[in-house]
Amino acid sequence: MPIAVSYATVNPSQTATFDFNGRSVLDFTVGIAYWKFCYDNDNFVHNLELTLATNKASASVVTAKVVGKLNDDSGHNLDTNNSSVVVCCVAVLDSTNSGVALDSAHGIPSNGQSPNITLPSTACAIHPTFLAGWKLEYNKQHQVAAVQFSTGITVNNTIANITATASMHDNSGNQATTAQVDAGLIAASTIEDGVRQTTLNDQRTSSTVSVDLGTPLSDAVVLLQDYQATFHKNQDNHVRTIGGGCAKWTVDGSIVRLESPKAFFTDDSGNVADDTKSSVSLVVIGIPKD
């Protein structure tokens, strides 16, 4: 049973298209590798939101409409031309296999969990979760000290639930009154089911990070699992730019090389993220060569 991956970089309000070249897509899930949202100058924040509206456009084509929001209460909105999102798709092609499950869940509240998801085995070789969107909203505009969202999993026999945390706050006691995430799950009974996976935790570097998946790969994608960004000194600031993850990676044999996996924040006064308190965790999905 072939599993394939694809990714695309688009601006918010654009659609990512994943064309699997005439092969029949039987199942799929999508997630986010990287995001960068910005205003044209720094401002307060009321809403911070990213959603992926997916569609199976044809037998072999999957699309994901990217919708992003960054706004205050004074009419300042996301600068879509200078913002970007790297969207990834994992798909099962041509024939089914009971040893693989791809799933998605939407609107999971912070400290909550998804509806039940059935796993292909009681002892899956892999079952990573990842972010496919989020919604953070104050009751009105405020400055920001920190933003965080993540996914996890609980497993009971063959039933799994994706767990979530999400928050946005300043240092005056203001917190997001709406905090939720969208998420995905890839599960495989064994590594013989056509996919390899590892997780890189707490990445915060401008250098290249290499990971060896142990077998020659034909392709790979990177998926954001955990994100946290805190301004220097944990202080309140306006926001000019926020984002993170991994925007670029390459495959060389069994090795995937990730460029600058990190989280970032900026305003227009020189304030940036505190790298000791800002990081991303990333799921690396590799497709072995035939």
Your description of this structure?
The protein has 290 residues and is an all-beta fold. It has one domain. Helix content is 0%, strand content 64%. The chain contains no helices and 20 strands. Strands 2-5-4-9-12-7 form a six-stranded antiparallel β-sheet, with no helix packed on it. It has a six-stranded antiparallel β-sheet with strand order 8-11-10-15-20-13, with no helix packed on it. The chain has a five-stranded antiparallel β-sheet with strand order 1-6-3-16-19, with no helix packed on it. A hairpin with a 2-residue loop joins β4 and β5. The chain is globular. The N and C termini lie close together (11 Å). The mean pLDDT is 96.
